[in-house]
Queue: 3 jobs
Job 1
Amino acid sequence: MTSNDESEKQLASLPKGDGWGLDDNLCLYQDFWFYSAQLKGVTEFQRDFKAFDSDILLSTLPKSGTIWLKSMAFAIVNRARYLVSSEKHPLLTTSPHDLVRNIEYFHSFGAYSSLSDFVSSEYSNENSRLLATHMPYHSLPESLKSDTNNSRIVYLCRNPKDNFISLWNYLNRRGANIKNPFPIEIAFELFCNGVSLFGPVWENVLGYWKASLENPKKVLFLKYEDLKQEPKSHVKMLAEFLGFPFSEEEERGQVIEDILKLSSFEFMKSLSMNKDGSIGLGIENKIFFRKGEVGDWKNQLTTSMVERIDSLFEEKLQGSGLVFES
């Protein structure tokens, strides 16, 4: 039996869940839900990837500020090569999803002979590979998590109510959901039962939260809302953690402000490539940009929904020290 046959057999045996209206089912693998199209990339990443000391992994749940984190990290790590104020900066013409690719989509971007080819591109920093994923912490390759490896992991999470609303709206802008939107009531029930992309959400968040407490030099845990409230101090913190701290001259100048502007939701959404272009997966860039607001859940969740999700996350996060504002 070939490895492909084994993979197909394994996939067929996994528990299946509702794919939130899309054609692909969610599959339960290592206690988390993935679309079947992602699983081959996930398993090969786990099996074949060998981390370098200089590797940087950016991890998020879908619709938790992924593009924002990728943009900031790319600008920070590559600012010696690409001046942030340059009119030819890659972030002006290329989607952050193409500049910093998610590992689980290894087989969806086209023909690559190896994982190392996939994570490398003409924009790669020769001294530091930027990688991205939505995978839970416990499913990451051991070489990335090892204390003997100096690679770093940044995790950005979002208030679960806004995360749910953003994910539901995003998936309703794809595939069959465009003409027949997936009902919010069904999506909410699935979400609260843990059946969501790379969920259960609380388990995904807790995995990185606990890792950041155990090894803060290895894992940096950030909240979307904190970034919104104090962007400059968090960009400085991010640069320091990544090993690319700002010099005194840069701090006196406009570098930090330029990075914040270049990576801001409003600016990114205004770019022509994010209005008309598409990423390597064939998905239109514009569907990644909706509001980017904190608290938009107030406009779309009922009182009973709010009470249920607040109660659920209070229960699931109890004793962890992690709190989301209600």
Job 2
Amino acid sequence: MQTTWTTTRREPVGVDSLNVRARPLNIYPADGSTGEVKKKKKKKKPKKKKLEQSDPPRVGLSKFFPDGVYPEGEIQHYKDDNSWRTTSEEKRYIEKMIMEDPEQTYEQIRKGAEVHRLVRKHARKHIRPGMSLTEIAENIEDGTRALAEGDGLEAGVGFPTGLNLNNCAAHFSPNAGDTTVLQMGDVLKVDIGVHIKGRILDSAFTLSWAPEYEQLIEAVKAATNTGIREAGIDVRLGELGGLIQETMESYEVEVGGKIYPVKSIAGLSGHTITPYQIHGGSTGKSVPLVKTADQTKMEEGDYFAIETFGSTGRGRIVESGDCSHYARVYDVPNVPLRVTSAKSLLKTINKHFGTLPFCRRYLDRLGESKYLFGLNHLVQQGIVNDYLPLYDQLGCKTAQFEHTIILRPTCKEVVSRGDDY
């Protein structure tokens, strides 16, 4: 039998065998410090503060859109015979060429639309009975200049802010000294213009604090949307007016137990817009609010303001009251001016407005004074046009809604459309 011997190795008795961890010997410097090495704390990078629009809006839009690309408006596809344009390679190529144009027409219009949306958002939130019309107008115009980043021919206000009350349908903006205060029973039309390098964005809405006029406002909004929906390349303007009228006049309003039919205001219309000319100049087209025999067609590339006006009155307007709106004639006649104040005023108009509409408050703002005689002389000589306020019959109420649209080669773009209307 073989014996197996087992040898057991003994570890030397020491610190490790007793399972006691050895502790490092602390040797301190002569200066008494602990000698510990402190870890450097990493400095946190300050978070970039998100740029926000002020209230009221006063921060220029280029800070939010540094690449110069602005939001596209609402896209509506063409109907019937023009539906092929949506997928046409040829039409897509034409649009691409337009977008590559150094003038970037579409982006100028879209910037104006974004300015309009922000300015009107604030206006719709803050306009209340008890405010003066001057206060309302100046707040809108200050916001427009700040967001558009201009106050002249490069950018800024496209035309005087229209603040048209009740039976006044259009062309009223308060002159200096106007003390009109908005009342609870008023129906207020707010017509705001923005321009970027002469490309004018024109859009309007109506406010009322009296429930009985909700149907009037709804009628006009629906009529404007009909005009937008039915507009398109090759559409005849007279027929489009008939569709607008049909929608408008399908509504009625009950006030004080009496029924009033809503009527389209026949003397007003939508219009084309060309650079620095709000009504498209001598070749401009008009979109009537009633059916007419006008066979003129809308065309590819047209830029239209589709605006409609409804009334509880006669549906006819007359000029009346103190004038606030003016615009220099595009093709200025060569008329010798012998009135010194008129010569001086014309230089101011040419420098700051060109053919853009302006009002007396804008001349006041530029430091012009005692200019009425010279201004009236320019009107008499056919150099400047005056646009008096337009009124339906006393006691009635009028309403307005308006959008601007581009008839693009492939689709229809409602550039001024927003969440509000």
Job 3
Amino acid sequence: MTNQYKKAGVDIKAGEKAVDAIKPIVKATHNQNVLANLGGFGAEYELTNVLKDIKEPVLISGTDGVGTKLMLALQHHRNENIGLDLVAMCVNDILAQGANPLFFLDYVGVGKLDPDNMKEIVNGIAEGCKLGNMALIGGEMAEMPGLYDTDEYDLSGFAVGIVDKSKILTKDNVNAGDVLIGLPSSGIHSNGYSLVRKIIDDNHLDLTTYREDLNGTLLDVVMEPTKIYFNELNPLFEKNLVNAVAHITGGGITENLERIIPDTLTAKVQNGTWQKPAIFDLLKQAGQVSQEEMDSVFNMGLGIIMAVAPENVAQVKTILGNRCYEIGQVENRHGKPVEIIY
């Protein structure tokens, strides 16, 4: 019997092999709260243990993709960490509201399903879930010839966390005098890659030769996965040491920091108080990008910015050690919501 569905471009057997390949990877992220095994119609996550110490439980959710960074991964066969990027973009968003991450679901759409390639992608997603203290409890693999070329795929993800209502982090908690503490990024993370790719293409930049200024190849640096901040933030949340958190994603420092600043206040950021990865100087110079645009597109070396009450700063620094920078403070409004002082 001929397999007409396979002739149409969908290989059911390849899908079954892919599911079998990722089952142990997914299971390694599970905990006692995960009830359903991979393959059911819906994922099951029990809340009995989670709710024990929470008076007013609130679910915090976030969904995202990895943007056009995915195109570089496809072009240069760098699929091993793109799943980690996917998880990071989702979990860092829910961490910014004080959530304790619970679980993650993914979606992968492909032109042609390759079990080995799928295993590599899901392995990155699972690694991200471990770093974010989440269980990977479900997802979807869809083979869609015609919508995607044979070697193309796309990713999206969905993270869910929980927080006691009284501990949700919002701009209402921020006060004049709060100190701004920044956590370093691992590089560009997953924002601004349409501009990154344009600069690389327009200037015919060499991606594979080792560069002293970058301490690696340009390809290695632009494909560095997005940092996940659970290990830094969770100890601070447990001790109620943070008033608000901004995840510095698309829109850069100015737009994202503004999201946690009340209408009557200004976040004053002092340039030069943190170490910027060399990649940002390279992009600025090669692309002839203004500093204003750099600040509105890229994280410029800061993946998280926290507003911290002055009396808590010393304890925050003790917990974080050398993994943070004091970059400014919150003042009464005297201009824009966010000012970067050069």
